[in-house]
Amino acid sequence: MPTLDDILEHIGEFDLFQKQVFFVLCFLSAAFTPIYMGVIFLGFTPEHRCLSPGVAELSSRCGWSLEEELNYTVPEQGRHGESFSSQCRRYDVDWNTTDLSCINPLENFTGYGNRSNIPLTPCQDGWVYDSSGSSIVTEFNLVCEDSWKVDLFQSCVNAGFFLGSVFVGYIADRFGRKLCLIVTILVSATSGVLVAFAPSYLWMVIFRFLQGLVSKGSWSAGYILITEVVGPSHRKTVGILYQVAFTVGLLLLDGVAYAIPHWRWLQLTVTLPCFLFLLYYWCLPESPRWLISQKQNDKAMKIVNYIAKKNGKKLPAHFQNINLEEEDGENLSPSFMDLVRTPQMRKHTFILMYNWLTSSLLYQGLIMHMAMAGGNMYLDFFYSALVEFPAAFIIILTINRIGRRYPWAVATLMAGAACLIMALIPEDIHWLKVTVGCIGRMGITMSIEMVCFVNTELYPTFLRNLGLMVCSSFCDVGGILAPFIVYRLAEIWHELPLIVFAVVGLIAGGSVVLLPETKGKTLPETIEDVENLYRKENPREKIIYLHVQTQEVAHSKCDRSLAQ
């Protein structure tokens, strides 16, 4: 019985219809960036100091410059957290005293022979921020003892990704890709608007969590839909280019954030256009592959005929009145224990889990750390985003020529080594620090895209969906940890997060070498096939299954026999 892939070979694997669907879904991929990395601009922390009552009036009376005001009234000026006192403590004195000197006002307070002996007190009256714009930090005073709340703001999004992946994947498999796409877009856009109007930090975090709960699901549903309507020969390339659209979104986010430096208006600007994606209800068809899996062959054939007509092709007569069937692998029930039951399966599972976590941790961590490096935040973000384009190009060139394992290992090792080198470069050589950071960003971008499809090639057919779901969930765990590692460890030593990233990345790159090369090999059908990946294959007939449907990634099936 012919498969959908057989028909796509006749009516177009990536023709006009598929190109149009791919084009409109790329907007969805680009719109995911403000949710995934928006904290860089929404949670920007400018230079700040305690608000001391009476200082502004005294400065005005004395005609001080800003530098003089800071020198006279702020303790121990420092940068990059080197001096906690300058940002989170103020002198415990009354600046409203009328007889204060303009030359050295602290001398007027008797009992203190030295400035260092003057007692300090927390910033009870708020802070002064050296910024013309606003962020959640400046509005809710998320600094000093409350600075961890910025970490929580970003971690809540990743926690939403983690929890939402299960039920959003169920919706996509149970009710269809199109319905899942529309529902998640509506909820994500509504939650994004609510974030912009949140009256307090608590409500902002709740709405942000809700947005994370569905937003990754909408991005994944778009990924699944486009990869299910193209032919097998274009599937990996289309999947990679769909992620390139995410990179385009990073560049657009950078430009919009530069033009709108006020976080509530920025949040509205990047969220309101998402409501236009509801037009997908009329623009996009349901996945014919999903309809076939639900035994709705008549509806699937109508869409197939529409694709043929749109592509200017005619469906062959012997395909007109057939019942499409998707081949199934072994009729086995997957279990979590199967992922660790045998030696090779256990090794694959642990290495893939660790590499998913590493990829997300280094990707988000590098972006956050470069944003707080002290240079121009917008330019640094722009330069580091640009390197993701050659990363995608290198992957497309190498995966079918060199293979998966070595390019993946080299990319991850490159990211880890770049983090280590960045930590050793002095801060006054900022351009070199940014350059090395961009190289690391390119490496970890390649690593993310490689682990995405290699994961599907290392598990047998009946375990492939479960294996990808379990392993890729560690990507969100890495995202939850990233802000705490970056912002908390940077208070101890500004380069300490990079040292952690270097160690984690180098271990991940070394572990990739322990995996088998999957280039040119048939996908395993049983656990025994996985165990035999390291041995010389015995001549026998094999069936290739290239169809995986999960909440994260979808590849279509192609069933053919190979005689050796």
Automatic annotation (TrEMBL):
Residues 100-520 form the Major facilitator superfamily (MFS) profile domain. It is found in: Basal cell membrane; Basolateral cell membrane. The keyword Glycoprotein applies. Belongs to the major facilitator (TC 2.A.1) superfamily. Organic cation transporter (TC 2.A.1.19) family. The lineage of its organism: Eukaryota, Metazoa, Chordata, Craniata, Vertebrata. One of its GO terms (molecular function) is xenobiotic transmembrane transporter activity. This is Putative G-protein coupled receptor 152. The chain crosses the membrane at residues 21-44, 152-172, 179-199, 205-226, 238-259, 265-284, 351-375, 381-399, 406-425, 466-490, 496-515. Its main location: membrane. It catalyses: guanidine(out) = guanidine(in); thiamine(in) = thiamine(out); acetylcholine(in) = acetylcholine(out); putrescine(out) = putrescine(in). It comes from Platysternon megacephalum. Keywords: Cell membrane, Glycoprotein, Ion transport, Membrane, Receptor, Transmembrane, Transmembrane helix, Transport. It is a multi-pass membrane protein. GO terms for biological process: monoatomic ion transport. Pfam families: Sugar_tr (PF00083). InterPro entries: MFS_dom, MFS_sugar_transport-like, MFS_trans_sf, Orgcat_transp/SVOP, Sugar_transporter_CS. GO terms for cellular component: basolateral plasma membrane.
